[in-house]
Design a protein that fits this description.
Elements (H helix, E strand, L loop, with lengths): L3 H31 L2 E10 L7 E3 L9 E3 L5 E3 L1 E3 L4 H19 L3 E4 L20 H7 L4 E11 L7 H7 L4 E13 L5 E9 L4 H4 L5 E4 L2 E5 L5 H17 L2
Parallel strand pairs: 1-6, 1-7
Antiparallel strand pairs: 2-5, 3-4, 7-8, 8-9, 8-11, 10-11
Helix pairs in contact: 2-6
Length: 245
């Protein structure tokens, strides 16, 4: 049997516990309501093959190696400097973190391909699904597609290996853009942004290479862009796009 003093003591404690539990519930409910997630279902990372480092394979005697092409014709065994799966995922994770900071998403999932594949002018291993499939496979608040694009503005440029073997220089004339579109599950557009890079590129190249900022893009006296430079250019675009209101 409780005494009057015991009742007076326990009543405030019970009230405090109820208030605490209620506050926790409200916070949880508000957190659930405000928490939003997204999926990056497509990311086109486009770079002209002619602007990438092309590498020739040699045999043990120092002679150029040949392989058969799709039609059975013997052609030189050469390839573009690869960008690894790990490097691709680092770029995608950087994009996801940018979206989290800009829109407050608590999570941004990726729809990476099961196989690498290859396509002219486009880096492989990036998310490459369609919106319809993304909506079907993911229950999220936002569906994001991105495009990072280095566009060639010169007429039919040769590959870097061509200029290396000729011992001549060349000028790359390029226009660089980075954009994204965010959809909801009903395929309505939530937001979209696009930026272009010109002046910002000087901090990467002007000290060591002849370069020029022009109305329609950026001119750079250089044989090719290394994968490290491609990643550095992307980071500049990522930073500028995040700052855009």
């Amino acid at each position: 049997m409780k005494t009057r003093n015991q009742s007076n003591f326990t009543a405030p404690i019970n009230k405090l516990i109820k208030t605490f539990v209620f506050s926790i519930g409200v916070c949880f409910a508000m957190g659930t309501a405000w928490s939003q997630t997204a999926v990056l279902y497509n990311f086109d990372f486009r770079v002209p093959d002619a602007y990438r480092h092309e590498i020739q394979e040699y045999d043990q005697n120092g002679k150029k190696k040949y392989i058969k092409d799709y039609y059975g014709k013997m052609v030189l065994d050469k390839y573009l400097e690869p960008v690894s799966v790990e490097e691709v995922r680092t770029i995608c994770e950087s994009a996801a973190e940018m979206l989290k900071r800009k829109y407050g998403y608590t999570e941004v999932n990726m729809m990476y391909p099961t196989g690498g594949g290859s396509q002219t002018g486009k880096l492989s291993n990036f998310p490459n699904k369609g919106l319809k499939r993304a909506v079907k496979k993911n229950t999220v608040d936002a569906y994001v597609t991105m495009e990072f694009k280095i566009e060639n503005r010169t007429f039919a440029p040769q590959t870097s290996l061509y200029y290396e073997e000729k011992g001549t220089e060349r000028t790359m004339f390029m226009n660089i853009t980075f954009s994204y579109t965010i959809f909801n599950a009903q395929k309505g557009i939530i937001d979209q942004k696009e930026i272009s890079l010109k002046d910002e590129l000087d901090q990467l190249f002007s000290e060591n290479y002849n370069s020029e900022i022009v109305d329609k893009g950026y001119k750079l006296r250089k044989l090719y862009l290394t994968k490290e430079e491609l990643i550095a250019i992307y980071k500049l675009a990522d930073k500028k796009l995040e700052a855009m209101e």
